[in-house]
Amino acid sequence: MGGCRGDRHRATPTQSRCRRRHPTRAGTDHGLLTVLLAAHGTRDPQGRATVAALAAAVAERVAARDVVLGWLDHAEPTVAQLLAERSVERVVPLLLGDGYHVHHDLAELTAGAIEVLPGIGPGPELTTALADRLAEAGWVDGQPVLLAATGSALAGWRAAVQTSAELLGERLGVEVRPAFLSGAGESVADGLATLGRFSPREVAVSAYLLAPGHFHSLLRSQAPGVCAPPLGVHPALAELLAARCR
After folding, report:
1. Backbone φ and ψ of 42, nearest 5°
2. Contact 138/4 with Cβ under 8 angstroms?
3. 124-222: same fold as 34-120+235-245?
4. Mean pLDDT across 56-60
5. Average pLDDT over residues 28-53
């Protein structure tokens, strides 16, 4: 199952209190312009708690905006509900890249009438978060890395993961190869076989995932060695998202 320590990134009681100070449901009007954080959604309770904690960390950094969290699937309030009930100035995706949800779902929901910012990466903030989570999981200097992401039919998403792998490789000074847990592109098993020339256990796996859930559980089952937890509530991501909300 590897060396994942995702439990360290669960929402704490303090983070839960932060969420109550920044309500996500309609009906709370502070007289501030509203920025909507749009999250993918998951049936996993820990995954929802992690994303909500990240949203709370962003809201705490943006005093001049009413920052609310909406879900594209599997949870409420939905993005569609909040767009209908609030006067939303801007949509900031809590998504790692510009995949289907940005290009299709959010574009359709906003119909071009509201600014939709790009996904989180690639970029230096995402690279920092990936490197930190790898180090926490036990990555050692010189160890090759497999960057494992969800799949997408969009070539742009796969290209973004490739760019993130290159940036992480430059940061760590090692070979970083992208792989995908579903869809097109090299699979995790094939990537481990390519990098682990003697044993896949020699390869550290970086999770290109924001929160716990189905895909991280799947990744842990395929990673025999070091496996990083999801990115979770990382300060570099919170600062980046807060800057986009201002």
Report:
1. -155, 150
2. no
3. yes
4. 97
5. 87
Structure tokens at 150: 């969800």
Q: What are the domain boundaries of the chain?
A: 34-120+235-245, 124-222
Residue 215, pLDDT score: 95
Q: Token match 């992208």: residue? A: 178
217, 158 contact by CB (below 8 A): no
**CATH classification of 124-222, choosing from 3.80.10.10, 3.40.50.1400, 3.20.10.10, 3.40.1010.10?**
3.40.50.1400
Residues 49-58 as b/e (b if ≥16 CB within 10 A, e otherwise) read bbbbbbbbbb
Q: What is the DSSP string of 26-39?
A: TT---SSEEEEEEE
Q: What are phi and psi of 215, to 5 degrees?
A: -70, -35
Contact 91, 117 (CB under 8 A): yes
Q: Which residues pair with 115 in a beta bridge?
A: 90
Output the pLDDT for position 28.
43
Q: Which residues contact 115 (CB under 8 A, 6 or more apart)?
A: 89, 90, 91
* CATH no. for 34-120+235-245: 3.40.50.1400
Largest Cα–Cα separation, the chain: 61
- pTM of the predicted model, to two decimals? 0.85
